[in-house]
Amino acid sequence: MKYTTKNEMEKKETSDEGNVTKKAHCNTVEGLKENWQKWANDHCEYQKHNPFSSNRTMTVQFQKGEEGYGTPREGSRTQQRGQSAHAHIEKEVDELCMIIKSIGETGEDGKPRVAFGPLFERYVTISNKLVGVLLTARKHGRISFEGEMLWQRRDDDVIITVLE
């Protein structure tokens, strides 16, 4: 939604004589009324697509399995925030794999690996969300480890292997 600034409202118009100017839609009641009506019309159009509005008439409904189902509108701020979050998570997973490679040892299969205990001790100074990043990295097929969840002390000897 675009709001009109005072400078945009103060555009000058030339009268019939060519040398007299006046400000259009600046202080006249008619100009204020037109600007208000434009804003109201824009807002009504916006509310038609707002999923939280009770005035929703033009919302596109996707069925499960259709393209576009469960995804934000193209070019929306929601889509931008999602892309930013994915990039941030990818960066954290890359950092985790780099740390495992730097403090771990190479196994018989040539892949870097480290026990959870030493990784936890090293990573806790970097971030407090190691287990969440480990689960995300496993979900994306970047690492592997036994068990569903890793707990400090109990799973200190569980081996975490980088798969790439």
From TrEMBL:
GO molecular function, one term: actin binding
Region (Disordered): 1-21, 64-86
Biological processes annotated in GO: positive regulation of Rho protein signal transduction; positive regulation of transcription by RNA polymerase II
Cellular component GO terms held in the UniProt record: sarcomere
Domain Costars: 87-163
Basic and acidic residues bias locations: 1-15
SMART domains, per the entry: Costars
Pfam families registered for this protein in UniProt: Costars (PF14705)
InterPro entries: Abra (IPR026111), Costars_dom (IPR027817), Costars_sf (IPR038095)
Record-given protein name: Actin-binding Rho-activating protein-like
Gene designation per UniProt: Abra
